[in-house]
Design brief:
The complex is a heterodimer of chains A (41) and B (457).
Chain A lengths: L1 H35 L5
Chain B lengths: L19 H12 L9 H4 L15 H29 L1 H25 L2 H21 L2 H7 L4 H30 L7 H22 L29 H4 L3 H31 L6 H29 L1 H25 L2 H30 L4 H8 L1 H23 L9 H19 L12 H11 L1
The chains are: A mainly alpha (41), B mainly alpha (457).
Chain lengths: 41, 457
């Protein structure tokens, strides 16, 4: 039971931590890709 | 403060090691802003004149020193404080990096407000440079200890963040300046304050979630090799003892030459693409080219470091040097053939390997010198980056200038530069070839380990 709670707690922390860094990074990459597309227009 | 002590960061049982890469990314994504600092250059030349440079406004040459100082002090602080970072633990280092980095922005905001460039040199250049150096090396050894089975991938993920930080900082800074600017005000000081506060909070999240593994911890199901493999030691080398080994200096040159070849071209990428394809690559498209290269620089950091876990560090650098030399020699042909696509493809691979050079080196050092002082040794090795930061751009700019002055058409002015870069990579290949296992006389004994543990406790 305690193990299950620990695992689900870890899962939530992992999701939040990765979203915290993943969202701004993805946003930045998308902005860069939009600008880079101009090279091929 | 006990919150910052290394003992308080020891992971409890069941702690997931996959929380460490986001903790490292929290720091590297912030300090990666340094690559995007150029977005402030033009607005900072118009702080007094507002719509255009006025009397007393700073020149671009004055502003160029801010970035150069920051990179110089990155190398200095990483070299000087590597051992302190290693022994004090990642949380203390990340917190210090956050203070220096955010403090650098706040002091620079004051420098903009009173219009004194020396305050900015001190704020962003020196204090911020210390934040860069401490922040850059702070998660490296922690990641390597958590991922003994895949150290390349782990450090590649963090160092990828340094490449990716500019993608966030560049549009964010432009957006902030746009919102803070008025008809009588450029908005740089307010943007610096906002960035300082945002980066401090972001980096503190990383400092809060970072943990070091408990003594004796190892990944589930992973068995440490009983016998050392070729070019992968199971022993440790003390940080200053590493300086006495030929392996340290050979890898120093490997990094320096790999970075020199890339960094010079990176700074000139926009101008080069326009001059090699006049009329076909516009300034706007050239900016897109620079962005694309930055993407490959970032992706290469993860891809090549992860690949090195399978093919070995030495083979990874062999790939950089052989493929890089071939591609640099091939670039003049793309100009002659007028093929923008081939030009972009060649540089995409070159810049992926430039990034890969940075991210693979911590694992290379770990293989050579062991886990214990890898962060500190990595800090010392970053002086190669500082050196390359001077060599690379100077080499590219002067060779181009010499060619232009001797009547070479602008479209072909980079050809010699490309061949020189290929030559540098061949020298790098030779240095890498001579990297062998560290002699046993440099390994720490059990007594040494105990002595240094007591000293750092």
């Amino acid at each position: 039971m305690a193990d299950q709670q620990g695992a689900s707690g870890n899962g939530l922390k992992l999701t939040l931590a990765w979203l915290f860094v993943g969202i701004p990074l993805t946003w930045g990459v998308i902005q860069t890709c939009i600008n880079a597309l101009l090279l091929f227009k | 403060m006990s919150f910052l002590s290394k003992e308080r960061t020891i992971a409890p049982p069941g702690y997931s090691r996959w929380l460490i890469p986001p903790a490292a990314l929290c720091v590297h994504l912030c300090i990666g802003e340094a690559y995007a600092f150029s977005v402030f250059n033009l607005p900072m030349t118009k702080l007094l004149g507002i719509s255009q440079s006025g009397p007393g406004d700073w020149k671009l040459t004055d502003l160029g020193w801010i970035f150069s100082l920051a990179i110089f002090f990155l190398g200095v602080s990483a070299a000087l404080l590597g051992r302190w970072v290693e022994e004090g633990g990642p949380r203390k280092a990340m917190f210090t990096a956050a203070l220096c980095w955010a403090g650098g922005f706040l002091i620079s905001a004051f420098g903009v407000y009173i219009h004194n460039i020396w305050v900015i040199y001190f704020g962003y250049g020196i204090l911020g440079g210390f934040g860069l150096g401490i922040g850059y090396i702070s998660p490296v050894s922690t990641l390597i200890k958590w991922f003994p089975d895949r150290p390349g991938m782990a450090t590649g993920m963090a160092i990828m963040g340094f490449g990716g930080g500019a993608f966030i900082a560049s549009p964010l800074s432009v957006w902030l300046m746009h919102n803070f600017s008025t008809s009588s005000h450029v908005g740089v000081a307010e943007t610096f304050i906002a960035l300082g506060v945002i980066y401090f909070c972001f980096m503190m999240v990383g400092a809060t979630i970072v943990r070091v593994p408990a003594p004796g911890w190892k990944p589930e199901g992973w068995v440490a090799p009983a016998q050392p493999k070729k070019l992968i030691t199971t022993k440790n080398v003390y940080v200053y003892q590493a300086l006495k080994t030929p392996q340290f200096w050979l890898i120093w040159w490997v990094l320096c030459l790999n970075v020199t070849a890339g960094i010079g071209v990176l700074g000139q990428a926009s101008a080069m693409s326009q001059e090699m394809f006049p009329g076909r690559v516009t300034p706007v498209a050239a900016a897109g080219f620079v962005g694309l290269m930055s993407l490959f620089n970032m992706a290469g950091r993860f891809f090549w470091a992860s690949t090195s876990d399978y093919i070995g560090r030495k083979n990874t650098y062999f790939t950089f040097f052989v493929l890089g030399a071939v591609l640099y020699a091939f670039v003049p042909y793309t100009g002659k053939a007028g093929s923008v696509v081939l030009f972009v493809c060649a540089y995409a691979i070159i810049f992926s390997m430039y990034g890969g050079g940075f991210s693979t080196v911590p694992a290379y050092l770990r293989d050579m010198f062991g886990t214990r002082y890898v962060g500190a040794i990595h800090g010392l090795l970053l002086t190669a980056w500082s050196m390359a930061g001077i060599f690379g751009p100077v080499l590219v700019n002067y060779i181009r200038q010499w060619n232009v002055e001797h009547g070479v058409p602008a479209a072909q002015a980079y050809n010699v530069t490309m061949y020189v870069m290929a030559l540098l990579l061949i020298v790098g290949f030779v240095c890498n070839f001579f990297v062998k296992d560290v002699d046993e006389q440099h390994h720490m004994t059990a007594t040494d380990e105990a002595k240094h543990s007591a000293a750092s406790a």
